[in-house]
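Help! Submission page says 'invalid entity' but I think these are all valid:
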Amino acid sequence: MIKTEQRSFNWIIWATIFFILIINFVLLGCLNNFEEKSLNERAVKLDKTLICPVCPGETIDQSQVEIAKQMRIIVRNMLSQGASDDEVIDFFIDRYGISIVGDPPKQGISLIAWIVPLVALILGGLILMLVVKAMCKPNFTKLANPRSQLDSSIQSYIKEVDTEFNSTT
Amino acid sequence: MAELGSLALYIAFILAIYSIVGSLFGVYRNLPSILRSARLATYMTVPTLIVATVSLVIGFVTKDFEIQYVYAHSSHAMEPIYTWVAFYAGNEGSLLFIALMLSVMSTIAILFSPRSIDNIRPYVISTLMSIQLFFLTVIIILANPFTKMLFIPEDGQGINPLLTHPGMFIHPPMLMTGLIAATIPFAFGIGALIAGKTGDEWIDSGRTWGIVSWAILGIGLLLGAWWAYTILGWGGYWGWDPIENAGLMPWLGMTAFIHSIMVQKRRGMFRMWNIILIIITFGLAQFGMFLNRGGPVVSVHSFAASSLGWVFLAFMAFTMIFSFSLFFSRYNKLKADRNIESPLSREVAFLINNLLLLLIAFITMWGAIFPLITLIFKDQIVSIGAPFYNQVNGPLFLILIFLMGVGPLLPWRKTTLSNIKNAMFFPITSSILIMVLLFILGVHKFFPLIAFGLSSLVFFSISREWYKGTMLRAKRSRNIFSAFINLIASNRPRYGGYIAHIAIIFLAFGIAGSSFYKIQEDIILAPGQSVTVADYDIKYSGSRIIQKSDHVEYIADLIVYKNSKEISKMSAWRAYYPDFRMASTKAAIRSTLLEDLYIINSEFLDDGSGVFRITINPLVIWIWLSGPILIFGTIIALWPQAKTARSKIKITLPNNK
């Protein structure tokens, strides 16, 4: 019984670590967005979001063709006239359709593009947990692990050896 | 020469068929002589394919424009050194190269396979040669490099100017070799499955060849990034372009495989999982070839695009169905005889690593597929580009780096809380200190801060392992240096792996720095005018125009000052190829360990002034430095273990009898 408690405790450790990591990402990621950015920084970021309409798969930041240059100028003009990032993006979506942005909007059909990775992450994590749990079957471990059959007096000694061994390797 | 080349291809085709039939028949009837001849037939495909390759090379060197492929990819004006590049500039040549590489690696793999896989080997051979047969069939029927023109043209069409770059000499062949190398470990896995020897016989060969293809693919990807950085003229090195992704996906799969195979090697577990992983990785490599050969997605890198892609997709579907049905038919034989003892163990850390790597590969693939889905079902065009991948895969990569930091600190089997505290105290506190220090020094952006912190966590945990191990050995030998060498020699897979981890944190370091702290200015300069970007003063001193045989070169000369001291003269290079109506640029780059000054000239205006993009890319050089370290780590990990331990057992065995 002690063993199973220990095991669920181990699970809690993994879960906590990843929980803290993810919370950190979300929280600080949000904070990051509030940071004041210079006009040039915002423009470059938009350049990297907008896909050049005539050159396959390249952003207007990458592309050297005429239309990409003009789009870069439009982006800068709009920003200097006080447009927000979203307004610039909407301006281009209105004219070219949503294929103009490299990260499709998180709504409508293109929401699926964002949901599937999340579902895959959760599903993968769940399957992994179940597999590990199944592979941790205690009765099997007992057979494979003769230590558990030793009497308790020697257990404490083995534990000591284990800690000694683990701390050196 | 064309006739000789064609003939060689047919002979290779027949040899491959004989090799398959002979191996299977030899096993069925238990005829060692037939088995041997089948094996020799496999070896013989190497010289025959070399003859075919040399014939094509001679066609290029002698400018034999009667051969259609030579006509399409070279010209009299082309510099002779680019013959090597022209060879694989199209489908026909690159497939021939792939077939040759497959034969060479198959031969080496079989020649050096241990005796323990005697029962598996015939099936490995027939798997390898079946795949070779597919390539040869495609080459002979659909993409024959020796097809002749109806007349002999005066001059050829010339080589794609984007290919005339030093990076092109090794990058495409490396990538092609890496993709096809995934076939070798796959064949060992499938061979073991067919033979029903589903134990640990195949894993040594599988691991070796897994690491080989992983390293080749990794270096190929790095060289591709370097090529894009110096020649595509946008100041970046990775754009999540479909062809880049095509190489990245199997690399991720192979990374998962070479980790998880260690669990089977050390603990005898994950047998089923390793087979599944190598099948998936091979599938991803085939998917990569499908994208390369003209898939449905467009890319700046695809030079050999054609409708051939669909043949590759069909073959991929076939091999996947075959492999997985085989897997399920052997399902019962694949059960492990040992279990996981605790979720808090290295085994489980490896599993989480596998999950994350496959997840990133899946998302990358999803990004390639999703636009097709919306196009077919909703008739709507959606682009999935770099911003999507950066947002979704970026955090997953960071978690992976975190795992790289804690994984090596977890022992096999199980551990206790106090042990973990003990092991993690130094690395975690040091990396938090590093983060605080960086924050004080002015790194205020979130992702780079986390990336640097996690990279330092990996560094400190590896250092701790090295320090502890060395000190333990130094107690005995009293010489710290030799103790350190001994430590690495004692467990090469492990310490070679750590060196590869160091290469990965170099990569993370460079990527984090250059993607979040890039400074970019687009500017027009008149001759003699200068501009200040960060702490550089850049003066445009003038331009030169040079007429070459097949192109015109435009060179902008710049002088760079820092603290009003001249530090360097730079030249941004650009060329126009009238035959192709194509322009090509080479950036002027000044690299230091801290940052690259990167200048591109995109055009000269009528009044003599030039249009420049001036970029400061921090830490980029660390990305390129990771390459040699990665190779070094791979060599250590693959270096055969010293024989002493084994021979001792051999001596004691007769005594026991």
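Support: the input was valid. A stray whitespace character was the problem, and the output above is from the cleaned input. Residues 139-144 of chain A have pLDDT under 50 and may be disordered.
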